[in-house]
Structures are given as structure tokens and as C-alpha cells.
Amino acid sequence: MIWWYWMLLGIVLLGVEMVTPGGFYILFFGLAALIIGGLAGLGIAQAEWLQWLLFSGLSILSLLVFRGPLLAWIKTQEVETPAVDSMGGETAIPLEDLAPGGTGKAELRGTTWTVHNAGPALLKKNQRCKVERVEGLTLWITAE
Q1: Are 55 and 10 in contact (CB under 8 A)?
Q2: What is the Cα–Cα distance from 45 to 54, expressed in whole angstroms?
Q3: Which stretches of the chain are DSSP H helices?
Q4: Per-residue pLDDT tens over the stretch 74-98
Q5: What CA–CA distance (Å, rounded) separates 142 from 119?
Q6: Average pLDDT, integer, range 29-37
Q7: Alpha-carbon distance 3 to 141, whole Å?
């Protein structure tokens, strides 16, 4: 098969992988087609039977070897996000003085959050504050 047929097949397979949900099955066939296209373009694999044999072997081998580690790596990249909807009523500690209506940073559950002073009084640094509500990733806090 002509080298650019392999390249086209590889691009199509990678495109199909991108639009289908699943577990990276087609990805390895697309990458193998691109590799075979490169080999055919360089004149390394000219016989058609050899191209198909390399494509089949490379696709199946890479699927068996790399799919599991790829899925495991992606799973570790998923970061658990805290349940911000359940933070109402908890105690946050401002990391800086916050004027009424001001925005700054505060610590809650061991991490730093963007907070908005929803009360009428100045919130001082390290003062215990109550989370009134959560809007997006901003906590609205008032003095306890």
C-alpha cells in the first residue's frame, strides 16, 4: 500500500478514537498505521504483505503492552475534587485581613481557597470564620 494511504488511515483511526468513548483500542491501530506509513515512505517496508504483517503485529502488541499502563496513568491524573457543596457551616481561617466585601485567601480542609467577606465587619488574619455559602470555587465567609 502506498505510504500516504497508511498515513491517511492512521489519521482517520486517531480521529475515530477521539470521537468515540472507550478505552483506547483504536489509538494503537492508528499509531501503528502511522508508523507503517513512515516505514513505507522511507522504503524500509515495501512489500504489501510485510506492511500488513507489521501493522497487525505492531497494533496488537502495542495494544497489549501499552493500553493498561496508559489507562492507569490517566486514572492517577484524575484529581479528586473536594465536595464544595458540603462546605457550608464549616470553619475557614483567613490568611490575610479581609475588608467587608473584599476577596482574599483562606484555609479550609488543609487547602487554600478564594474567599469573599460576606459580612459587614473586617475579618482579621487567622480569625475563625464560618462558610455561609459556596459560589463556584469561592467561599463566602463571615465572622463566627
Answers
A1: no
A2: 9
A3: 3-19, 26-42, 48-77
A4: 888 776 665 666 788 899 999 999 9
A5: 5
A6: 94
A7: 63
Residue closest to 47 by CA, chosen among 36, 58, 33:
36
* Mean pLDDT of the chain, nearest integer: 89
Rg of the chain over Cα atoms, rounded to whole angstroms, equals 27
* pTM across the whole model: 0.53
SS3 content of the chain, % helix, strand, coil (to 5): 45, 20, 30
Name the β-bridge partners of 98. 123
The cell numbers describing 17, all together, are 478514537
Please, are residues 51 and 36 in contact by the beta-carbon 8 Å criterion? Answer: yes
- Residue 130: all three cell numbers together: 464560618
Residue 36 CB: number of other CB atoms within 10 A? 28
For cell 455559602, name the residue.
133
